[in-house]
Amino acid sequence: TFRFARVHSISAIAKDTEKMDSVKQLIENLFGESLKLTVPDELDVVPIVTPCKDLRHGDYQCNNAMSLFAKVKDNMPEFRNPRAVGQAIENNLPASDMIERSSIAGPGYVNVVLSSKWMAKRIHNMLVDGIETWAPKLPVQRAIVDFSSPNIAKEMHVGHLRSTIIGDTLARMLEFSNVEVLRRNHVGDWGTQFGMLIEYLFEQYPNWEASASQDIGDLQKFYKDSKRRFDEDGDFKERAQRAVVSLQGGEEKYRKAWSQICEISRNEFERVYQRLGVVLEEKGESFYNPYITKVLELLSSKNLIVESEGARVIYVEGVERPLIVVKRDGGFNYASTDLAALWYRLNEEKAEWIIYVTDVGQREHFEMFFSAARLAGWLPGGDDKYPKVSHVGFGLVLGDDGKRFRTRSTEVVKLVDLLDEAKTRCKAALIERGKAVEWTTEELEKTAEAVGYGAVKYADLKNNRLTNYTFNFDQMLNDKGNTAVYLLYAHARICSIIRKSGKDIEELKKVGTLALDHPDERVLGLHLLQFSEVVNEACTNLLPNILCEYLYNLSEDYTRFYTNCQVVGSAEETSRLLLCEATAVVMRKCFHLLGITPVYKI
Ligand code: ARG
């Protein structure tokens, strides 16, 4: 088995190096060649290529002519109008078997129609070589996604759920694009609240060393109780403040109590991650604490830190209030930790792209310490230069009443309960469809889980992340419309068509040919081919909803194809089964990138 594993990994590497350009990239390359011939003196002109909105005009279009005309009209009088530039661009297109024909439209758009034969061949190749050959190429080797990041002893709320879901998808898309991703859980495990927690632990649980984890059933209640004690009792408050000093000074007993409290929280978080199938590596705030002093000295040496009202602060352009990095009492805060963490990630971990996923409410914090890092010369200016930092903000989760989502009026939602409910509802729906008799118990459980958790994730991801979204079980579990349930069922139906054909797909891949002769086959084929550029776009702009939209449209294109083209028993059966399989493969990769487990029968 060892040998097999080795051979396997070598072939995976070999595939890696065969990464292909996306269709859009290939078209851009062709237009790039043409532009070099058309305007030889314009060295910095880049081809602007977009997919055509109306497929009657073509599949892709080049939009350079208009702006180029304005640029060159004085030096190149042979171009009398933008359309003439477009004409020249078209004439200079190198011959290519990927293009069927081209034309000029309006003021100078150059439309190209892809060769259906070329398209079909490319899809067939993907079926043989694997969807990995359609992975996007990104200009980075290593990225950090800082996501989820709940706070120890406080509740992990729906905001953290959003961060977990969005961050995981971004990490998956980057990983698929062959970027090495460090998935970081920046948990709030440091700070003054630990003084009161530790002191309360000593006071209420004299046996804490042996049995704290069994005795503290509900850590959030523990937090609330200790907070009440802190607010009400001056003596306790003083002891709690001394406890912080002892903890930060590294006193054994305090460190131990701290790590026990963290451990209880960690186990609770882990239950949510396991259900969601999310993997994270914890490097909490405490990890960076030893680096803060040195990093602040570094910033001081560049004269960035000044004194203000007893605190030490950094002023950045455009914001009146400065970024506090040392509090009046000499303690460090969220910002000092984030500066130290950024220094560590750039210099020790050598990350080229660092992505932070939190609610939009924290935008100013991120903008400010990013600016500080730029002032210090850690980051180059400009959006397309690396190393780069990005804040991925998201909106609120609302309840049906339009207010922040809560189960009962005062309590925050317990995430595990939420996921349980999604699963329970899915299971009930499946039982209603007779699946309890048809399937094994395990199949029923696994499907209910896949659909239920998938629905929660998809409902979150399908919206532009900056908008608030309403959490509604009935909507997200609807089997019609843009929901995970609908999409998972659509995929299962494709699988069942292939199964019921009785044909061996592996064999068809070897001996069959794929063709895209019917207009609805061609539309579906074009959509499949755009997978790579869509993932690229979703990744580059950090917008998972772009991938959701692609997936939903894919299933619509498939439905149209399936309605208008007979598959099983037709003269085109082989080709159409291959097209069904290609659709299923791309859908599955979309599900995978969205963190959704596909189901194969329904
Ligand atoms: N713990 C923070 C919160 O719950 C999120 C941390 C985000 N990451 C970071 N590097 N600041 O709001």
Automatic annotation (TrEMBL):
<dbReference type="Pfam" id="PF03485">
    <property type="entry name" value="Arg_tRNA_synt_N"/>
</dbReference>
<keyword id="KW-0436">Ligase</keyword>
<comment type="similarity">
    <text>Belongs to the class-I aminoacyl-tRNA synthetase family.</text>
</comment>
<keyword id="KW-0648">Protein biosynthesis</keyword>
<feature type="domain" description="DALR anticodon binding">
    <location>
        <begin position="487"/>
        <end position="602"/>
    </location>
</feature>
<keyword id="KW-0007">Acetylation</keyword>
<dbReference type="GO" id="GO:0009791">
    <property type="term" value="P:post-embryonic development"/>
</dbReference>
<dbReference type="InterPro" id="IPR036695">
    <property type="entry name" value="Arg-tRNA-synth_N_sf"/>
</dbReference>
<dbReference type="GO" id="GO:0005524">
    <property type="term" value="F:ATP binding"/>
</dbReference>
<dbReference type="GO" id="GO:0006420">
    <property type="term" value="P:arginyl-tRNA aminoacylation"/>
</dbReference>
<protein>
    <recommendedName>
        <fullName>arginine--tRNA ligase</fullName>
        <ecNumber>6.1.1.19</ecNumber>
    </recommendedName>
</protein>
<dbReference type="GO" id="GO:0005737">
    <property type="term" value="C:cytoplasm"/>
</dbReference>
<dbReference type="GO" id="GO:0004814">
    <property type="term" value="F:arginine-tRNA ligase activity"/>
</dbReference>
<keyword id="KW-0547">Nucleotide-binding</keyword>
<dbReference type="InterPro" id="IPR014729">
    <property type="entry name" value="Rossmann-like_a/b/a_fold"/>
</dbReference>
<dbReference type="InterPro" id="IPR001412">
    <property type="entry name" value="aa-tRNA-synth_I_CS"/>
</dbReference>
<dbReference type="InterPro" id="IPR035684">
    <property type="entry name" value="ArgRS_core"/>
</dbReference>
<dbReference type="InterPro" id="IPR009080">
    <property type="entry name" value="tRNAsynth_Ia_anticodon-bd"/>
</dbReference>
<keyword id="KW-0030">Aminoacyl-tRNA synthetase</keyword>
<dbReference type="InterPro" id="IPR001278">
    <property type="entry name" value="Arg-tRNA-ligase"/>
</dbReference>
<comment type="function">
    <text>Forms part of a macromolecular complex that catalyzes the attachment of specific amino acids to cognate tRNAs during protein synthesis.</text>
</comment>
<feature type="domain" description="Arginyl tRNA synthetase N-terminal">
    <location>
        <begin position="25"/>
        <end position="114"/>
    </location>
</feature>
<keyword id="KW-0067">ATP-binding</keyword>
<dbReference type="GO" id="GO:0048608">
    <property type="term" value="P:reproductive structure development"/>
</dbReference>
<dbReference type="Pfam" id="PF00750">
    <property type="entry name" value="tRNA-synt_1d"/>
</dbReference>
<dbReference type="InterPro" id="IPR008909">
    <property type="entry name" value="DALR_anticod-bd"/>
</dbReference>
<dbReference type="Pfam" id="PF05746">
    <property type="entry name" value="DALR_1"/>
</dbReference>
<dbReference type="InterPro" id="IPR005148">
    <property type="entry name" value="Arg-tRNA-synth_N"/>
</dbReference>
